[in-house]
Write a structure and sequence with these properties.
- This is Heme-binding protein 2-like.
- The protein is an alpha+beta fold.
- It contains four helices and nine strands; from the N terminus they run αβββαββαββαββ.
- The protein has one domain: Regulatory factor, effector binding domain (Multidrug-efflux Transporter 1 Regulator Bmrr, Chain A, Alpha-Beta Barrel), CATH 3.20.80.10.
- β4 and β5 form a beta hairpin.
- The structure holds 2-acetamido-2-deoxy-beta-D-glucopyranose.
- 2-acetamido-2-deoxy-beta-D-glucopyranose binds next to β3 and β6.
Length: about 210
């Protein structure tokens, strides 16, 4: 009883912090829906425009996701050549590239740079943080709720690929060397959490 009351209070707090749990609606990278959506709507096909992101590697065993997040968060809080404060955006993506051996797994966490700074992002002063200009990309996107553990991400990327094949996507056109995870909520949000995994097309549509 007491536990459920407590839990509900926590829910309401999470909800009160705004749409995504950061206190405000966050700017997102622009995309268009591709014309070839799957008939069963099990995933979405999006065409993202070229955009600058700020990124950091988390490729060693000691590099926890919270540490990578803090490096990027400090960059937007002013740890950059202009001393500029940059708004938080959504999603936070992690690019996962497994590599040839179990020790080569490369994970890169990124924040999208908001429009105000897109054309000329201030240089990071932390040497572990860099600006990454992403080319236009066509992403196959599967959404799922809850807390995205590493296992949940892998399970969902498997399901996504199964759904894509069932819908007639030619697997030779898909980049299967890596995938993205995308998280849209702050850790302070406890309900209606939205997560995605993305597989990219080898050749983006440039419509
Ligand atoms: C990304 O930033 C660079 C400057 O660092 C700029 O030349 C480029 O046009 C920007 N890319 C986009 C897509 O705005």
């Amino acid at each position: 009883m007491i536990l459920s009351v407590l839990f509900c209070l926590v829910c309401m707090m999470g909800n009160a912090f705004g749409g995504e749990g950061y206190g405000i609606e966050l700017e997102r990278p622009p995309y268009k829906l591709a014309t070839n959506q799957p008939k069963d709507r099990s995933y979405e096909v999006r065409e993202y425009a070229a955009a600058n992101w700020t990124s950091t590697q988390m490729d060693s065993a000691s590099s926890k996701s919270s540490e990578a997040f803090m490096r990027l968060f400090k960059y937007i809080q002013g740890r950059n050549a202009a001393g500029a404060t940059i708004d938080m955006t959504a999603p936070v993506t992690t690019h996962i590239a497994p590599g040839p051996t179990i020790f080569d797994m490369k994970r890169t966490m990124s924040f999208y740079i908001p429009q105000d700074f897109q054309a000329d992002p201030p240089a990071p002063t932390d040497t572990e943080v860099y600006i990454e200009e992403r080319q236009p990309m066509t992403a196959y996107v599967r959404s799922f709720p809850g807390w995205a553990s590493e296992t949940e991400n892998w399970v969902n990327v498997y399901k996504l690929f199964e759904d894509m094949k069932r819908n007639g996507v030619d697997e030779d056109t898909v980049d299967l060397t890596s995938f993205y995870t995308a998280g849209y909520n702050s850790p302070m949000r406890f309900i209606k959490r939205h997560n995605e995994v993305w597989l990219l097309s080898k050749t983006p549509n440039r419509t």
